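Hey, resending since the last one bounced:
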Amino acid sequence: MVRLKEVIVEADYLVTCDPSNKVIKDAAIYVVNGIITALGTQKEIHKDYSTSKIIDGENKILMPGLVNTHSHSVQTLLRGKADDLALLDWLKEVILPGEANFTSHEIYVSSLLGFAEMIRTGTTTANDMLTTHDSEKGVEAAIESGVRTRIGKMLMDSNQGYPKSMIKNADEVMEEAIKHIDQYHRTENNRIQYSLNARFLLSCTPKLMKLIVETHNQHEDLMIHTHASESKAECKEVERIYKKSYIRALKDIGALGDETIIAHGIWLDNEEYEIIKQTNTRISHNPSSNSKLASGICDVKRYLEDGVIVGLATDGAPCNNNLDIFREMRLATYLQKIKHLDERILPAKQILRMATIEGANAINLGNNIGSIEVGKKADVIQVDLSDVNALPCYEPISHLVYSASGKDVSMTMIDGKIVFQNNVFTTINISKIKEEVAKYQKKWSD
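The structure tokens again:
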């Protein structure tokens, strides 16, 4: 994977997701050393700039890469093994035992498979939560794949019926996390950034949460990433243990703020919504996961009306079964229209922004990615318009939200480097990964 020093990327339509939602027909961008240096019509770009490397854009939409604000790449090998279970059963019966039993190599393979699927379907940035052991293998997979990530090991120290091998005391947990911060945070041209991934309050003692907050406060540009208020049963258990509701507990610990992103955030009372608003905490909306696990429907409308930054996410493959943000866009807008019985909620332009620039803002990367603007990093994708599902295409944003699929992505560029083009990965040996997945599948089946 080599960054192209200079490249012109063309398209029939350029969807910028900039502040004015500008769309340019017969467009092109000029990229130098991984930075978007100019954009405009093809005529304008070719008049002012010249390079031998041109990526053709016939029958293509060029748009910002998608931002997955909550993923578990490490769970990808467990796809299809935890269907039709409620959240806490899903965790205790399949997911945590599965993660606990992964070998170091399987963590690498599972994570790499997950990142490959994200790249293939147009995700250029993932806010990714790994597992408790050998998590450096997941970080190595992110580095190798070329994906942009906030990433880190899963932090947990409380045994509520979870595998004992996953539980260490709070000091040991944080000692390893701090070692990883020193090793990985803001590396690979700032493409890899570490995050403090507290699994959820049911697996984290107050002591561990306090250490997480202290560690966060000691480092620059380090986010706290956790699950909260996902299901009624989970919220009930948190109240039993912490003697207060989920969001109030996180507030009292000091774990909320503009460098915290909460996955799910479904079951809140009025005061808790106000706490999220006042602390400027970010929300990651996971519509497919919340639907399949029957957790509930997040009130995205309310968050947005409160000025809360909301991004979209897939969650992990076992609770969603694929890692395609295009599917999440469509389902997110459908569910809000049904929840509020209002067809005007989350129109295509707004939901596309949630998948791009607002997702980037949710993980505090919006100054560098999430829209196609001069000076931003060249994290962009081309979406093919030649297949039957794209005909006719009257309006490109409508097509992207309501018709397109991740499998329509024909090119993925991250940090100015082509990592996927025309069904070929440039960073990942997919044949080798398939062989490793087959070995794991046979081991599980036996």
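Residues 8 and 46 are 9 Å apart (CA to CA).

Sorry for the duplicate.
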